[in-house]
Amino acid sequence: MDGKHSLSATNLAVYQHLDCDLYIHNVYNGSSQGATDTSTSSPSELTKAQYKRGLDWETSLYSWLDRSQLLLKVPSMPLEASSLLENVQADDRTHFFITGLNLWPPQAKLAEMFAHARTEPFNFGLAKPDLLEIKRTKDGVIGWRVLDAKASKHVKVYLALFFILQGTAFSLADLFLQTSHHIQIYFYTLCLKYLLGHPFCHADDSAGIWLPPKDGFHTSTPSFEDIKSISISLLAPAFDTFLFKELPRILNQPYEQVKWHYNPLCHGCKYEPECRPRVQKEGGLGSMPNISIDDAKVLKDLLRLSDVSAPFNESLTDIEQLHDLFAKPRKLDIILGRSPALVKKSKQILAIPRKRMKRGPILSPLVEAARENMVQVSSEVPCHVLSSHTPIY
């Protein structure tokens, strides 16, 4: 499939959710298989239900804002920054929200950020923020911030370590923010800061995710209390590095060198039909069922440590290397002496019994099933293998 040669904020959010370099590489450059959208996997019933819930929540929220005389609808077509300013200035309300925005990113300004990072620039697609909150002060200054409507019951967050490293105080509520939500509102804010660079416009240092009422949006009305805010200046260092340093490197890599791991999150991805046979053919860790990204990192660490002790045959796949390692107890014992926690975790992931009933090679039913392409009986099935939202092969 031909690449888009541009990335949207939605593409960035999906990338953050999947944590897959191959996804974003395929979106921009096109996949190696030349597949078309008609060959992509169909969304699951759960995905369809989540998508419908999201649309229903947006409709409910916009309807409530409209009834509350707090909504300004603009035509759903690319809007010049000057036209947006005219719409804002013509509205005499002190507090309202704009929906329907479609804005082309300021490519020239963003190119300067790529130049500062010394990376090759790429294009971003049309920006479509859900809501732009406007607050006008008594002296006529227009304050604004980006809001995104999400139908989640809560928003997961993984920034605690970053807060600690920055010496920034954070609350328990902050621990429920998810990177995939925030990359969208950060990107929209970054674009609008350049587009609305007017002396009388002031960007708020926060952006927000507007969640439904806890009792459900079908029975309760939306509330400003359900807007979960995040500091833009707090997000900037990590996201600027990602957008202007890491992404160009990923997009310019040869297809064969792009990092990826086939895992439960892949189900529903448009490129999943290409990756499933590829991982089986290449004998990757993802050819075992329900091996998460974190699980794969543990197993990769085990293989790296094993390779240092006694190098593998370079022609062996990851699956064959795992089989080879556990088939040689002496080699495994050496690693056990160096990193017992790593070996213990790896055994849990691979459903290897805690106690050996007899001497000889240690066999993982997951590894052997992947090798032989057949079902193996496991006496210890890890809890993540029984996950109800992922298929068991």
What's the SSE blueprint?
Layout: H1 9-18, H2 21-29, H3 45-67, E1 71-73, H4 81-90, E2 95-99, H5 107-117, E3 131-136, E4 142-149, H6 160-166, H7 179-195, E5 201-203, E6 206-210, E7 227-231, H8 232-251, H9 272-282, H10 293-309, H11 318-326, H12 329-338, H13 340-349, H14 365-372
Parallel strand pairs: 1-2, 4-5, 4-6
Antiparallel strand pairs: 2-3, 3-4, 6-7
Helix pairs in contact: 1-2, 1-7, 7-8, 10-11, 10-12, 10-13, 11-14, 12-13
Written overview of the protein:
44% of the residues lie in helices and 9% in strands. Helix 4 (81-90) links the parallel strand 1 (71-73) and strand 2 (95-99). The protein has 14 helices and 7 strands. Mean pLDDT is 84; it is low at 35-40, 157-166, 168-177 and 381-393. With 393 residues, it is α/β, with parallel strands linked by helices. Helix 1 runs antiparallel to helix 7 and helix 10 crosses helix 12 (329-338). It has 2 domains: 43-251, no CATH class; 283-386, no CATH class. Strands 1, 2, 3, 4, 5, 6 and 7 form a 7-stranded mixed sheet that branches. The chain has helices at residues 9-18, 21-29, 45-67, 81-90, 107-117, 160-166, 179-195, 232-251, 272-282, 293-309, 318-326, 329-338, 340-349, 365-372; strands at residues 71-73, 95-99, 131-136, 142-149, 201-203, 206-210, 227-231.
